[in-house]
Each structure stands twice: as C-alpha cells, then as structure tokens.
Amino acid sequence: MTTTHRPGPLGRLAGVAFRHRWRVLLGWVAGLAVAVGLAAGFGGDYEVDYSSPGSDSQQAQRLLADRFPAQAGEPVDVVVHSDTPVTDPDVQADVTALLAELRTMPHVIAVDDPYTTPGALAPDGQTLQARLSLDVDAPEELPVADAELMLAAAESASRPGLDVALGGDAIRQAESGEVGSEMIGLIAAAVILLVTFGTVVAAGLPIAVAVAGLAVSSMLAGVVAAIMDVPSWAPILASLIGIALGIDYVLLMVTRFREWRAAGLSPHDATVATLDTAGRAVMVAGGTVMISMFGLFAMGLSFMRGAAVVTMVAVLIVMAAAATLFPALLGFFGHRIERWRLPIGRRRGAVAVSEGGHVEPSRGWLRWSRLIERRNILAAALGAVLMLVLAAPFLGARFGFPDAGNDPASHSSRQAYDLLADGFGTGANGPLLLVADLAGGGADAGSLPELSEAVAATPGVAAVLPPVVTDAEDAALLTVIPTTGPQDAATEDLVHTLRDDVLPAAPVDVHVGGVTAAAIDVNESMAGGLPLLIGGVVTVSMVLLLVSFRSVVITLTAAVMNLLSVAAAYGVVALVLEGGWAGQLIGVENETPMPAYVPIVMFAVLFGLSMDYEVFLISRMRESWLRTGSNARAIIDGLAGTGRVITAAAAIMVTVFAALVPSPDVVLKSLGLGMAAAILIDATLVRMLLVPAVMHVLGRANWWSPRWLDRRIPQLYVEGRPELFLPTAGEREPEPART
Q1: According to its UniProt record, where is this protein located (predicted)?
Q2: HSE-CB of 136 using CA atoms within 13 angstroms
C-alpha cells in the first residue's frame, strides 16, 4: 500500500477474520450448534396476546377466562344450511352425527346443541349455528392437522341440499397455508446476483452469508418466544428481512471488493479496505433498521415488541456475519472472485478504475446521471408529482380488521361467513360479548333482565341472547348481535355507545368483549401510538444521518424522501384493498379494510430499509464531494457508481417480499405488496430520480452544516478513507489468470 494508514476497527476485524478464516468458519458452525441447542432446550411456542393492555375488551376476556373457561377458548363455528327446515328428522340426524364426531376431535372441550341453544336457529329455519369451544387461547395454537380433521368431517357431512361450513380464526389459520417465501427469495436472489456479477463465486458469497444468518437467527427466534410474546408471523417477517439485508449488504461489499481488486490490491488488503469503506456504510444502514424496529416498542403492545425483538436479532446476526463471516469467506475465495464466469451479465474486458479506487460506471448510468443534472427541476417536479399520485389513495383508506368475509370464496371460513350473514344477518359474524361481574351474587343477577332490555333498545342492536349465569352467580354473559357487520363503522359506533352511554347506567360492572370489540380496541391503541412511532424513529434516524454525513440539508431531505416512499407504498396498498381492478390482480376479491398494524409494521420496516439505499448513495456522493469539492460531480459519481448495485439490491428485496403476495391471507398479502412496492419506488423514483434532482437544485447547500454543529459532531467517516488504501502503479498486484 502507499501508506502505513492503520485501518479502523472494521478493517482490523476483517484482517483478523481473513487470516484466521478457518477459526471464524468453525466459530460460526459452533454458533449455529449452540443456537440449535438453545432452541431445542428452551424454545417456546409462538403464543401471543393480541388484546390492548388495560382495554375494556381485555378486562372482558379476563373475566371470561376466569368465570367462563369454556367460552374463553378459541371458538369454531359450525354453520349448516339446508334446502329444507333444519328441524327435519333427516337433517337433524345428520347434524347430530356431525357434532358427535366433532366432539371427539382433539382440543374440542365443548359443543353447543343448536336445537336447544337460544338463537342458534335462523329465523327462516333453514340455517343453524353450533359453536365448538377449544382448549387453545389463540388460533395459532391449534395444530393445522387437527383443524384439517374438522374440515374433513364437515366436508363428509355435506351432501346435495345440505351445506356444512366451518368458521373461526383457527379454521382461517389452517386454510391460509404456508408460503415458502425464504426459498423463493433465495432462488430469485441467486439469479439476480448471477446476472449482476456474471460469476458464480461473486454471486455465491452474498447467498452464503444470508443463509448462515438465516440459519442462526431462525433458531434464536424460538428462544425469544420463550421469553416474550412472539406472533406466528414475526419469524417469517424476520427471515425475509434477514435474507434481504444479508444479500444486500454483502452485494455492496462484493462490489467494493471487486473494485479494490481491480485497483490492484491483494485479496487481503482489498478485504481490509472493503470493510473499512463499504463496511462502515453497512453498519450505519443496519443501525437505521434497528432504530426503526425499536419504534415498535412505542405501540405498547406485547406482540409488537416480540416482532421487533425477533427482527432485531435477525438484523444483528446479519451485521455480525457481514463483519466476520464475509471477510473469512474472502480468505477462501477472494482470489477467485472472477472465476467461473457465466455467459451473462457484463462481458470481461479492460477494467477502468476511476479516482477513489472505483470501477468506472457504465455509460448508461453516466448518461442518466447527466440527464438528471441537465433537467433537474423537471425531474424533481415529475418525481414529486408521481409520489403524491401514488400516495393519494391512502387518504381514503378504511381502517379495520379483515375477517372471513375477505377470504377466498373457496375457503370454508368464507362459506360459513356468507351462510351466517344470509341466515342471521351480517352482525352474526361479529357478536359482542358483554361480561357482567356480579359481585353481589344473586342480588345483582336480578338486574340482568333490565340490562338486557336497555342493551336491546340501543340503536344498532339486532338481538340480545338470554344471559348465561355461572353456577356461583358471580358473573353473567350476554351475547349481543349487531345489525351491521364486524367491519362496518356503525359496529364500532355501537361499541362506543354501549361503553359510554348504556352500560355506565347499569347497576353492575359490565365489559364489552369479543373478537370485534378487541379488534376495535387494538386498532385505536395503535392509531394513538403511530405519531410517537413516526416521530421517534424519524428523529433518531436523522441524528444518525447527521453524524454520518455532517449535513443538515441531506439529513432533512433524506427524512422527507423516506417518508414519501412510505406514503406512496401506503397508497399502493390502499388502492389494492379497494378490491377494484388493482385488487383483482393479486387476488383481493372485494373491498377490504386496512388493519392498523399493517402501516405500522410497514413503516418500521421500510423506513429502515429505505435508509439503507440512502446511506449507500450518499456515502458514495460524499466520498466524491470530499475528493473533488464539486457538488455536481459528487451527485453524478454517486448515482452512476451505485446505480447498478442499488438496482440489483432492490430487485432482490422486491422479489423476496413479493413472495408473500400469493398468500391467501390478506394481511400477509398486503404486507408483501406494500414492502415490495415501497422498495421498488424507493430504488427508482426516489434514489434514481428525486434525490439527485433535488440535490442538483440545492447545489452546494447540500453539504452545509453550521460551524458550531460541525465542531461538536464526531467524525465517523462513514464512507471511509479510500484514498489511503490506493496503491501506486508499481504496487499494483498483477491481474489473476482469467477463466
């Protein structure tokens, strides 16, 4: 090298890992073995409480669990529709035989008799509902195989003139199936990397690091579940993010390593230089993702905290693999980085190295960069208009929780939903459970008829079933059937009316619970925490960017651009959930409400991921700015120099998240579509158009920072000091033989 410059901590760590590559590799194998052992010995189940802490519905659920244990378990609805009255002897015999069979199924602890239970027969006499009570508290706890036994029994009982369908969240969970998103993402990533690099070795390194990170983090997810509540969808989300980040980070560093090799550095020195330059950007990018996931703690919901911790563990493992395993693998394969070239991607030829040790970007990216420079005002205006157009549908978004009415028509849960709505009214799919605490025993029980009359007289109530009182007369349960469906805004108004106006006048303490009420409470709780989430994550991320790039203007524009990316993704999801032509493209058959936790999870994930591209782009721009002092040159160098790697990274992320779109679960579908759309928008409209155009308009002001602030900000050198690693002409290592 031309200097005795001592590399930073990452560079020194890379050198150690490169030299002691066998020890590092064995260390990762041992770490995986420890993770497997911890998961086997201490791994917990993915059990979670979706209720809002301290809410009225949570208090109702606790009373149910304490006083009505059979009612507190997860229910399964058996809905039967007959062309003849369901009281006909033949129909009744078939229904009785079916219920007797279901009573013997695993996890079934009670079965209602629809012929003796009040309100179980529809007014038209051709539809009935029987409820199975399970011994599980959450849908995820019922094994899919046991749910499939129930579905098979219902299918066997159906015949011409007699339709039988099963409903409930446990059935929906079983019918949703599993999507092998991880494998789909890895296969797609391998293809994209081969096209990007054109060599098997260069393409294989990001895959190897991502697989290693996935193997360790997936084992540790079960350990986290033993400590805190973790929803069943969290490991899927964490795996996808881990795969995407692992591949993206190593993709960036492989690109930089090839540039250092082309500049003439030996494999060891190129590894050190790579981690001391691109590695710093990777650590900052990973830090922004961690900060974003910390924001989920602001929701005050246990399942959000569990999802955040599992995802943060995956990100930490990926960052550790990028800092240690990747340089160790370069110790094995770095000198073969250009080997096993395929007849795709860039053709091998003379490699031109620009200032700073970077390979000269392609002419196409240079032409695009200069076009943005010449038409910067037009490009900025066009980009802003397109982002606002994409975000516009979110203004009319309808928040709520999708239910079985949004499932595919072929699913038993959807058929049960439709049969209930036709026979009993739409409100039968979202009953409210009023749980009364009868502290005074029999004396309080005498007030129940008056309470029932008051509730029945409330506008929006279709029926109130007779109260069920415990043997000890210490609690009562009233089932209220609304006139509107569970997704209807009028049902939410009814819940508030009961809580605010009707029940406070009752002589006993009454809480409104049930799935519909719990969903309303969680929705409102998350909506209240959303401003804190956005404000906290944006503020901390801005501080990190300010320290990294020492520019107030870049920090502010980065925050605005990332918020625009998220807003545009929200608009895409809202448009699809309207169920029109856009929804039909991905299997959303009718208008569907947007669950409040979808935009929350999307924001936490996407703000961190979009910051990745911002860090990659701006770090290359700042590197050029410090070298040349020209704002225009810095923007062109940054855009042209990172265009190829950001495009490849975005293509991988889009493919990984889009693998969720075929899922029959509308929530997973929405999350997958939203994140894929956001990454696509961020990597194209934002990073390739809007950011460089706005920076050209702002000129040298991009790099402005008050002197007093500049003196107080620590110097991180997030882009590294590449000039210190460049060799002289006589020190260049000869090009390796090409194969």
Answers
A1: Cell membrane
A2: 23
339: left (phi over 0), alpha (psi -120 to 50) or beta: beta
Of 228, 201, 195, which Cα lies nearest the Cα of 305? 228
Read off the tokens for 322. Answer: 């990028």
Tracing tokens 């066997």 back to the chain, one arrives at 156
Helices then strands (H, E): number in the chain? 27, 9
| Residue scoring higher pLDDT (286 or 725) | 286
For the chain, how many residues are written? 739
SS3 511: strand
Tell me: the pLDDT tens digits for 234-261?
888 888 888 888 888 888 888 888 888 8
Q: Considering the domain 49-69+431-513 in this protein, what is its CATH number?
A: 3.30.70
**Is this model's pTM higher than 0.85 or not?**
no
Dig out the tokens for 214 from the structure. 């996935």
Q: How far is CA 93 from the centre of its chain?
A: 47
3-state secondary structure 617-678: HHHHHHHHHHHHCCHHHHHHHHHHHHHHHHHHHHHHHHHHHHCCCCCCCHHHHHHHHHHHHH
Residue written as tokens 């494999």? 267
DSSP line for 342-355: -SSSSPP-PPPB-G
The CATH number given to 1-42+198-343 is 1.20.1640
If one looks up domain 74-176 in CATH, what number appears?
A: 3.30.70.1320
Cβ neighbours of residue 266 closer than 8 Å, sequence gap 6 or more? 733
